[in-house]
Amino acid sequence: MTLSQTHVMGHEAKLYRNTGTVASPTWNEIANCRDLAVADSMTDVDVSARDGGGFAMSDAGLQTLELTFQMIGDYGDADFVALQQGYYARTPIHYAVASGAIAAAGTQYVRFAGIITSFQRSESLDDVTLYDVTVKVTRAISAGALVLLSWVTVTTTATP
User: How far is CA 43 from CA 57, 60, 113, 133, 137, in A?
Assistant: First the structure.
């Protein structure tokens, strides 16, 4: 009998930025990333009314997606430089957060246009210079169309 894992380890997950176009993406792995968190939540909309039997009632409103992660302050790393420049220029970047290699069958990922809203530097005495990065979904246009967030499951191995 052959056994296989049923889970994905955090170090197997990957963060990518698109260096191509939205229509024909070239996914570049941001390897200088650690402790990535994807906060995914919906706002709480109050739909309470007098006919609710005295109970507060809710519905799901707008969905929010936010990435937080750390990068080592490697000023020769092309990804670090691209994100730092994107932050200071307030330029959207096309991201993908994947459960593994983005072109591998079975990989699940979310892709979206994001804006870096925080790029905080930490200089602890007994650590490397670290940057805490926050990315939020933003409005961006590509080829005349709004870039919408999408969830993808790779069904066959493809070229990224």
Answer: 13, 6, 20, 23, 15
**Where along the chain do its domains lie?**
10-43+60-153
| pLDDT less than 50: residues of the chain | none
Is the pTM for the entire model greater than 0.70?
yes
The tens digit of pLDDT for each residue in 38-62 reads 999 999 999 999 999 999 999 999 9
Q: What angle do CA 107, 65, 144 make, to 5 degrees?
A: 85
Sign (positive/negative) of CA torsion 149, 62, 8, 130? positive
Among the CATH numbers 2.30.110, 1.10.10, 3.40.710, 2.60.40, which is that of 10-43+60-153? 2.30.110
